[in-house]
Amino acid sequence: MIVLRLALQSLRNRWLTALLTVLAIAVSVMLLLGVEKIRTGARQSFADTISGTDLIVGARSGSLNLLLYAVFRIGNATNNLSWQSYQDIRARPEVAWSVPLSLGDSHHGYRVLGTTLDYFTHYRFRQTHGLAFRAGAPFSDLFDAVLGADVAAALGYKLNDRIIISHGLGSVAFVEHEDKPFRVSGILEKTGTPVDRTVHVSLEAIEAIHVDWQSGGRIPGQSASAEEVRGMDLTPKAITAALVGLKSKLATFRLQREINEYRAEPLSAILPGAALQELWGLVGIAETALTVVSAMVVATALLGMVTMILTTLNERRREMAILRSVGARPRTILALLMAEAGVLTLTGIALGIILLYIGLLALAPFVDRSYGLHLPIDAPKPAELMTLAAIWAAGCLAGLLPALRAYRLSVADGMTVRT
Amino acid sequence: MVAISREAPATTPHIVRVCQVRFAWPGRNGFALAIANFVLPARTRLLLIGPSGSGKSTFLGLLCGVLTPQAGSIEVLGRDITRLSASARDAYRAEHFGIIFQMFNLLPYGTVIDNVLLPLSFAPGRRRRAAARAPLEQEAARLLGRLGLEADLIRGPLAARLSVGQQQRVAAARALIGAPELIVADEPTSALDRDRQAAFLDLLFGEVSAAGATLIMVSHDESLAPRFDSVMRLDEIALQGQKDKA
């Protein structure tokens, strides 16, 4: 079709402005889809972090807080859970397994988690994945440590390296447990969860490095050496939280209620899924804001396209007069201009998708490494395709503005070019 | 007022007949153009002398069906185009008219051949007629050759690279392709110098006769008159011309 070919040639004749317009649309589409990818990636990463755990138990606090510090190592516990209460809960007939978690120390900014060997058998992520060792084995000695994949990679640790744990959190340590060094006994496979950024030691080890401590400081004059500590009773007095698995999911709500009403001390039991929902409710506002901003960027790009087409209309009145003289209807001219907007938008969308996937391929490993955020590189989902279709429709509709103006001009001008 | 035709055999069918036409631009008072009677026999070469402001553009717009008069009839090839819908008039124009402007006739980013073939997209009848002679591109090249465009230019660059004279030849080929009955040329030679004017008219006349078409050429240059079968002044056929603002 010569008319279409000429329309494309006309566009090619204005290739620089057309290219910039297409680029603006492409970048905006990439941004919109990228935000969506990060959003779903973040949700999936969060949701994938903990699987198979029915309840998380800790001292009385908000469920979100408990979830964040127990699972995501974000923030701090406001209070501890006494060892006695933990033993009570653990002894309940509904409980199939439980894993105690003790937090509060760190190593070069990475959290140190005191736990038991059960942690390595019961912790699940991404539905069914369990923890696997890339090297070494779980701790067998009191001063053994198991490193998450990121810790080992970032700090360059190998098996049997010696590490010193710092008291408290923060990457710059003021007080160190330098008298009781740990040996790296094992390094975990990468999981894409906060486990990668955690140093795991036994509960007893946490107790051991704190025997001569009280209220966050060394007791002056008292110093128990690493060897002396081995002889002591290292049963912890308190832990930070516990993951609990039940024999039957049906018991979940009953046990949760009973823990929440536990008489000996104020406790909280939360369902990880429900707490995550609460989290989505919170971050949903930010997500919506991001989506609205990127939608605005798309709208701006389409406005740019309309501006571009409108500014070319005057110099194209001759073109329209020629088309009218050879018998083109004003409707044909309207269709041509809308087609131009449609082609520009479609090209922009296609280029945006290509840019997005190039960006994902290039950045996903980095984002995964740096932020533990696993960005899925998969085909666009139906909802995303609907969004793209909506953008295209919006582009064509926006093209109606210059097209209608061209229509009116071509009816008024007829075959004469007025300037 | 009837066309002053040098040799107007009564038997020749009229290709154009304009009766009692009155046209006013919308929103303006008074008639821009009123024509009592205008008849053009087939295969005539008419020179229409129209100084600027005489309603020339309005007249051509009415004749080609881009404008609709408020009253009167305009018969082209026996059909009153004022009774047609706007899009039917566009189709009628595509089928039966070849139009050449004063300048800027071509889509600058298109090839020469595409520019010539452009009207055929809107006129299936002309397309069939052109295709009956030769494959379309060959037919376009043949016309361009007959109109004196150099062979390397025919297959060559974009229309924008051509000189004004060359562009007018391409425009003539576009008007002639598929042999429409009526060729309307609006000052096609005013951008050319004397010598090239004469050469262009020779070629145009030759092809118009060969195609058996009728030619209406508008000009303000009365010295061209001897070359035409018939000469009219627009201010003679226009009854009362209030100033055409175009």
Largest interface: A-B, 28 and 33 residues
Termini distance of chain B?
Answer: 25 Å
Shape of chain A: elongated
Average pLDDT metric of chain A: 87
- Which ranges of chain B are low-confidence, i.e. pLDDT below 50, for 5 or more consecutive residues? 1-11, 241-246
Tally of alpha and pi helices of chain A: 13
List the quaternary state of the chains: heterodimer
Number of helices of chain B: 9
Q: Please outline the major beta sheet of chain A.
A: 10 strands, mixed
- Rg from alpha-carbon coordinates of chain B: 18 Å
Helix coverage percent of chain B: 25-40%
Summarize the structure.
With 419 residues, chain A is α+β, with helices and mostly antiparallel strands. Chain A has 13 helices and 16 strands.
Explain what this protein looks like in three dimensions.
The complex is a heterodimer of chains A (419) and B (246). With 419 residues, chain A is of the alpha+beta class. Chain A folds into 2 domains: 2-46 and 283-413, no CATH class; 55-270, no CATH class. Helices cover 53% and strands 16% of the residues of chain A. In chain A, strands 1, 3, 4, 7, 8, 9, 10, 11, 15 and 16 form a 10-stranded mixed β-sheet that branches. In chain A, strands 2-14 form a two-stranded antiparallel ribbon. In chain A, strands 5-6 form a two-stranded antiparallel sheet. In chain A, α11 crosses α13. With 246 residues, chain B is of the alpha/beta class. Helices cover 35% and strands 21% of the residues of chain B. Chain B has helices spanning 56-63, 86-96, 112-117, 124-133, 136-146, 151-154, 164-176, 194-211, 234-237; strands spanning 14-23, 33-41, 45-49, 71-76, 79-80, 97-100, 182-186, 214-219, 230-233. The longest helix of chain B has 18 residues, at 194-211. Chain B is globular. The chains are: A alpha+beta (419), B alpha/beta (246).
